[in-house]
């Protein structure tokens, strides 16, 4: 099976006062194409930090993280941006939507960076908005949406370019149970049909029920890594 992420002896430290806080401690992990995996643990366990480094939004203090053949530590800012633009999709807790853009324009934005034709962009945006149940909000702006609707726009934006890997930080945090399950089923379909890989950072039991691999973190260390049978499919 093709490996898309290799994490080797990863340690991440942040300066605190006159010392350092070690958020990740000698992490070793590997992810293959088509995984539906979750980093699971309480707040402060290192989930988001690990996700950010895999996404080339941060770099290791020591050790190495290789994403689709690219060593994160060795990438220039331009190379890291290119990797994110072409290969990765991100879903953040705080949406990061562009407030002056409509729902359509927010979802279309990643496709503008890929130089697709207008007809191809339109087709992909409309299809993706249908997946997340927002076709009736195409012309709305973020301020006119509920928190759950904003989260669904953020999910659509991450999925619209059909990335190789989606990194999702608590993607259902602002969704009710029905929308959470609908979104997770959509992600699962993308995973199965397009072989899009997903790595979640979560402590939401609704998300955990869909995972095929659970990696448990505590105090910056991996304490368990197991393949599981999802209880929701």
Describe the structure.
The chain has 7 helices and 10 strands. The chain is of the alpha/beta class. A 6-stranded mixed beta sheet has the order 6-7-8-3-9-10. A 4-stranded antiparallel beta sheet has the order 2-1-4-5, with helices on one face. Strand 9 (213-218) and strand 10 form a beta hairpin. Helix 3 packs across helix 4 (118-131), helix 3 runs parallel beside helix 5 (147-159) and helix 4 (118-131) crosses helix 5. It is globular and about 50 Å long.
> How widely separated are the two ends?
23 Å
CATH-defined superfamily: P-loop containing nucleotide triphosphate hydrolases
CATH architectural grouping: 3-Layer(aba) Sandwich
**Spatial sequence of strands, sheet with the most strands:** 6-7-8-3-9-10
Query: What is the count of DSSP helices, taking H or I runs of 4+ residues?
Result: 7
CATH class, named Alpha Beta
Order of helices and strands: EEEHEEHEHHHEHEHEE
Segments where pLDDT lies below 50 for 5+ residues?
none
What average pLDDT do the residues reach?
Answer: 91
Q: How much is the radius of gyration in Å?
A: 17 Å
Query: Biggest sheet, open or closed, and with what strands and sense?
Result: 6 strands, mixed
Helix-residue proportion: 25-40%
Domain count: the total is 1
- Proportion of strand residues: 25-35%
**Tally of strands:** 10
